[in-house]
Amino acid sequence: MNLLLDTHTLIWALADDPELSVAAREAIVDGANFVFVSAVSVWEISIKKALGKLDAPDTLLEEIERHRFTPLDIALEHADRAGKLPPIHMDPFDRMLIAQAQSEQLMLVTRDADIQKYPVRCLLA
Predict the structure, then answer these.
(1) Domain map of the chain by residue range?
(2) Which of 16, 18, 44, 83 would you call most buried, defined as having the most Cβ atoms within 10 angstroms of its Cβ?
(3) What are the pLDDT digits (tens) for 76-96?
């Protein structure tokens, strides 16, 4: 299974937070699965951390690498698709994650109910 972590799921996974569902935790640690982290999540975390709205590790990139998560860059196709999504969810970071999951045929690991309204495969975080 190929997974894409949404931003909160990434934070919970890195912190081994009990908020993360058992199913999501098992899927993330299953060595048979590829776990992707989008550049958009790193961007969102960096912005919120700089604004004092989020506590995140200073070594975020190293933590992502240490957990053997696969980086996912933002491609032109992703940006085009995100802009064409119906206006169910207005958060640009989440819209990009939806577009990336759709384009790359990834299962999005999220707890966001609005994301789940789109035609995208989701695993409850």
Answers:
(1) 2-124
(2) 44
(3) 999 999 999 999 999 999 999
CA angle at residue 25 from 20 to 31, to 5 degrees? 160
Q: Long-range contacts made by residues 15-21, C-beta under 8 angstroms, separation at least 24? A: 20/125, 21/111, 21/124, 21/125
Instruction: Give me the helices (H) in the chain, please.
Output: 7-15, 22-29, 39-50, 60-66, 76-84, 92-104
What fold characterizes domain 2-124?
Rossmann fold (3.40.50)
**Residue whose C-alpha is closest to residue 95's, from 83, 103, 104:** 83
| Structure-token match 């940006």, residue found | 79
DSSP state of 92: H
Cα separation values, 35 from 4, 49, 52, 83, 94, Å: 6, 23, 28, 25, 17
Summary mean pLDDT of the chain? 97
What amino acid is encoded at 15 in this protein? A
- From residue 101, how far is each of 4, 37, 106 by CA, in Å? 7, 11, 5
